[in-house]
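Give me C-alpha cells for this 243-residue protein.
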Amino acid sequence: MDHSLSKNLMFSDLKFDDWRIRMKAHLCALHDEMWEVLDIGPFTSFQKVNPEHAIDNTRPQMISKAKSEWTTEERRKYNLDNIAKDILYKSIDDRYFNRIKKCKTAKEIWDTLELIGAGDEQEKDNKLTIANKKFDDFKLLPGESISKMYDRLLTLTGEISELGKDLTTKEINLKVLRGLPSAWKMKVVAVQASKDVKTYPTDKLISDLKAHEFEMIEEKEDVPEERTTTALTASTSKVNDFD
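Here you go.
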C-alpha cells in the first residue's frame, strides 16, 4: 500500500485546522475503523468465548485470544496503528519530530500534534478573540468582488467554528449586509425588507448579491457610452450654431 503524502497533508501549525480535516479524511479513507485508533487507541487484543467457563448459552465468558489465533481481519485491525503512525511520521518535518518521536501509539502522536497546532486553552481563547475581532471588522474591500469576499468570510467563520464558537445564520447574513459600502444601500434595504435574515440561506444571499453586482457593473459600463453620446450631440449643436 502506497502511503506517500501530497503536499497539503504536511503538518503546519499555522494552518492546523485545515491539516486536521484533510489528514483525518485521508486516514479514515484507508479503513473505516481508523478513527478509533486515533480517538481511543490501538486494537491490542481480541476476544473469544471461553469454552471451559461459559456462564450459560446466552452469556458466555470471554477471554483474550492468543496472537496465533487472530483472524486476518483482526491482524489488519492491529496493524492500523502502525499504518497511522507511518503516515503521521511522514507528515512531520524535523522541527516537530523530536516532540513526537517518543510517542508509542498513533493516538499519542495525534494528541501531541493537537496540542502543538491548537495550543492550550489560553491560546485558544486568544485566537478566538483575534478571530472575533476580524469578524467584527469584516467588510467588502475596495475593488473586491462578492465572490472573493465570501471566500474570505467562509475561511474566517470556519476558523471561528474550529475554535469552538458557532455563528448563527443571522449573524453571518447581517455581517455580509453591513459589510457592504454605501453604494449597496438600496439593495441592503431591499433584502432586509423581503428576506428573513435569521433563516435565509447565506449561499442564496450571496447569489442575490452577485446578481446585483453584475447589474451594477453593467450600469457603470453604460455610463461612458451615454456621456460620449451626450458630448457628441453637444458638439454637433455647437457646429450647427456656427453655421
